[in-house]
Amino acid sequence: MDINTIREKYINYFKEKGHKEIPSASLIPENDPTTLFTGSGMQPLLPYLLGEKHPEGKRLVDSQKAFRAEDIEEVGDNRHTTFFEMLGNWSLGDYFKEEQLEWIFDFLVNEIGLNPEKLYVSVFAGEEKLGIEKDEAAVKKWQELFASVGIEAKVAYIGSEEDGYERGIKEGERIFYYDSKKNWWSRAGVPEKMPAGEPGGPDSEIFYDFGGEHDEKFGKHCHINCDCGRFMEIGNSVFMMYKKNEDGSFTELEQKNIDFGGGLERIAAAKKEEPDVFLATNSLANIIKKLEELSGKSYAQNPEPFRVIADHIRAAVFLIADGALPSNVEQGYFSRRLIRRSILFGNKLGIKEFTPSFVVDTIINDYKKHYRYLENKRDEIVEAIEKEATQFRQTLQKGLKEFEKRQGGDLISADDAFVLFTTYGFPIELIEEMAKEKGLTVDKEGFKKKMQEHKELSRKGAEQKFKGGLADHSEKTTAFHTATHLMLAGLRKYLGEHVTQRGSNITAERARFDFTHNEKVPREILDKVEDYVNEAIEKGIDVTIEEMSKDKAKESGATGAFWEKYPDTVTIYNIIDKDGTEYSRELCGGPHVKNTREIAKFGKFKIKKESSSSAGVRRIKAVFEEES
Length: 628
Prior knowledge:
The protein has about 625 residues and is an alpha+beta fold. The protein is built from 21 helices and 20 strands.
């Protein structure tokens, strides 16, 4: 049962339970400046989890592409990957814990055929200081489900991960209480780190027991969250039922939601009784087979370089397909880093002139049935990878010369290692390897310190730069977002259809909007655009949503930027008056008001400034002004 079969079974199972299938969102998020990548299934659905109505209803199912840049250095063991797919089923204020736990247990045991004797679960232990109780309802339901297959499931309180290593698992225990570091889910992590307005809630994780001896280097005893390899988390049901308040307290959401995320590759590993996801996942296994042919070496003898290359090139293929071409900034930096690291590990395998594009067709062939667009972008992906590979080889030659110059004494200093990393793209492991060959050591601790300082500076710089998308999903920011759509329609009406969006940054205080136009926009035109927006607001027009194929949306005349980032099925927001006057009809995946009249309470829409942003691109700053 490969990942394509499991994905199909999952989607069909929940469709039979009344769920509508929705397409995977792009790896490059829209209207979310808080993160560079889509790293979870809930990110694209956040507006709907907060109460906005989804055009497909209250029950949804999908397989969402995800990329987690922070896991790049972790790749090399048997379970970490940067790119993965999350199987997701969603209840937007419809069913809750009872149905969710029952259905996911039924799917794993009866549809996929996992042995229930090997399933273990964790639940939330509560957070007394925040007034959030422990999840006794989930415990009761899990006991019923295990009892239905003849298993008596004892309950234990673990608390922290550290406590787990001290305590271990006693006989018969199958359900475990953990604290908020392990069994609470929000985008920000634990409750204390959540910003005001953010939704989150307790969760219940499902683990599969692969057996095997515990490795005490991870801790004295094994427990289900141990990293020794015996247990692997395969799914997580989030009971998204709380919202954080300005004072740090929590209140229950009016609309309680279910957000399930199941690791597709990890479920495949459990099905095959193969704890190595690189062997259990057909796409990764096929890449490894190709690499064995190219290198003449065996995966079993030295798995790490095979795993790094397989993961990194698969991730790069999907990132480039979603628009993240290799570069020095933002998403493109990670495409570049993935390609360059895979080349270095290809060198380790002794593959002469290794170019990651050697395995692109292997990846596309395994995924094209579900992600049809990959085949159409094949040439673009190969070209981007080969161009980056050529550029990196040139950089490597310069870096090797620089390395020779920087040798002095028996130590490669932290400063020298840092320059080799930042300027020439040499990972620390390559610097250490080259140093070892020459009998030198590297100041690794000093290098780590410099890297931490570099990350802090980069983070501060990123906070100050012009970020895209919405700062939050507050009522006023949402109103600005809808008004910005109307403004774009007005600009196209009075300047011409060459005007398209080139970027936006919207907060509760103002909207900044970049658009294509070659010259300064006269004030009289800006006034006409203002009037256009305010007229639509005053009319109180319903904002309606429809989903259709991307091709049909283009044919229908819907406007939109970055078409290539969107899946085959897209969402169109319509602002069309009862008399048929079309004020805006645009492709978008963000939150909007339900009626334009909702914008009026914030004041009149006013364009305060129009200026040049870059060659051929103008920038507008707009605000809401209260009428005197």
